[in-house]
Each structure stands twice: as C-alpha cells, then as structure tokens.
Design brief:
By secondary structure, the chain is of the alpha/beta class. Helices cover 57% and strands 15% of the residues. The chain is built from eight helices and six strands; from the N terminus they run H-H-H-E-E-H-E-H-E-E-H-H-E-H. The longest helix is centred in the middle third of the chain and has 38 residues, at 68-105. The protein starts with a helix and ends with a helix.
C-alpha cells in the first residue's frame, strides 16, 4: 500500500511539474492535496532517494525537477502496478465468467448488477459470452420485490450492506439467486 501511495505522490509531483516547471512547494502541496509540511517531507524523501532534484534559485525559491532516476523509478513502479492490475483483472474476469456460466447453466436468463462497480464491464462481457441478458440498475432504484426479480434472474450487488439488507427482505426462493461482487471475486485473490 505504501508503494502505491508513494507511486501516486511521485506521479502527482511529476505531473504538476510538467504543468508548471516553476511550481513552488505550496503549488505542489495544493496539487497533491497534502499539507505543506507533508509535501516538504516527501520532497526531501524523494530527493534523498535521488528521484528529485532541488535547485535553490534564491533564499526563498527552490526549483524542483524529477531526475532520470526518478523518472525511471516512476516508470518501473507504474509498469509493476499495471502488470498487477492486469493480472487481477484477468483473475476477476475468470471468476466472473465462471459465475455467469454457472448461472446460465442453472437456467438464468438475466444477470442484474445493482449499483456502480468498476468491474461492470467484466459482468457485461461475461453475460454476452454466456448468452444471458445483462441489466444494470442503480442501487437507489432497486427493490427486491420488483417485477424484474424473477426465478430466471440472478442478482449481483455491488454493495455488501445492500446485499445483506436485500437478502433479508427476499423471499426464500430468491435468496439463493443473490450474491455480491465481493463474494464472486474473493475466489480470484
């Protein structure tokens, strides 16, 4: 987690300096949404690691720039982060596709995703692949007692709390046809 936050901060500093090469420490603090003291500490840390060059322009002004080593580190960490994200997405895709196929094999014709989820496109793709309908419903508009909740639909909740509340309201025949995104992708980790 610290690696991710450090990557994000280094990336933010790099982006801010690309937008304004004369950015002050105060400007960088605003851009990174950190306090001035925290920004100062991070800039010094990056400089100590050789990722950032700090050139004193005057008594009160310092110019900052990423070093070649800093850009290399940013690139390497970004690559690792991307590879890890791609690996997780493949694992999630496999879990979601297995889930959709199992639902289709059990006679499901509709998969209803309730709420916003970053993995929505994987559910949509899996449904297309398994030849079942994909229906997205805003969590505020969903009611377990509505007509689209049928014995041929499987309901996947983005939010665990809404899942628990809906399962408690559902008739017994629908409880087995409800799950959450988290329960599906737990198999991927």
């Amino acid at each position: 987690m610290e690696q991710d936050s450090e990557l994000q901060l280094l990336s933010n500093v790099h982006h801010a300096l690309r937008l304004n090469s004369d950015a002050s420490q105060r400007d960088l603090a605003q851009y990174t949404n950190l306090s001035l003291g925290m920004t100062n500490a991070l800039l010094r840390r990056f400089a100590d690691k050789g990722w950032l060059y700090m050139k004193k322009i005057s008594k009160r002004n310092i110019q900052y720039m990423l070093t070649a080593q800093g850009i290399k580190e940013l690139s390497a960490r970004s690559k690792r982060y991307f590879k890890n994200t791609a690996r997780l997405m493949n694992e999630y895709q496999s879990c979601i596709r297995r889930f959709a196929q199992k639902a289709a094999d059990s006679g499901c014709t509709d998969l209803i995703l309730v709420g916003d989820n970053d993995l929505e496109f994987l559910f949509d793709y899996a449904c297309h692949f398994c030849k079942i309908s994909f229906i997205k419903i805003d969590s505020n508009d969903f009611d377990i007692r509505q007509k689209y909740v049928t014995s041929r639909a499987f309901i996947v909740f983005s939010d665990e709390v809404q899942y628990e509340a809906s399962v408690n309201l559902a008739q017994s025949e629908y409880k087995a046809r409800c799950t959450s995104v988290m329960q599906i992708v737990e198999n991927a980790g």
